[in-house]
Amino acid sequence: MSSIYDYIADVFEAPETAMLQYNRIAEGINSLALLPMRCQQIVLKHKKEMTVRQLMVDNYSVIYTAVNETVTVLRVLYSSSDITSRLKKLVKCGYCGCVFTSAIAFLHSENLQH
Prior knowledge:
The protein is α+β, with helices and mostly antiparallel strands. The protein has one domain: YaeB-like fold (2-Layer Sandwich). It contains four helices and six strands; from the N terminus they run ααββββαββα. The protein has a four-stranded antiparallel sheet with strand order 1-2-3-4. Strands 5-6 form a two-stranded antiparallel sheet. Strand 1 (40-45) and strand 2 form a beta hairpin.
């Protein structure tokens, strides 16, 4: 989310607007504490099938997983970008089911004692 703030603050020279957008996204994420399953499901069929959810906040998509009472935010993407291709970079751990970007997944699996 810091890159979203930086982009709006630097490119548009609007730090106040950047902070307002950052706060709206953060509030949206915090709202997932209640009824996290309310948002649209997206089924990704890449290496392994995985289901993520999409919370829309203004022009941004918060991509997350919800398992039991745990919500994990995977990405916050500008909605007009090609979300499907950007989500293909997510990887599901074969041992515990955690979802990460491909670069972090390797480190995660190396550090787990499965």
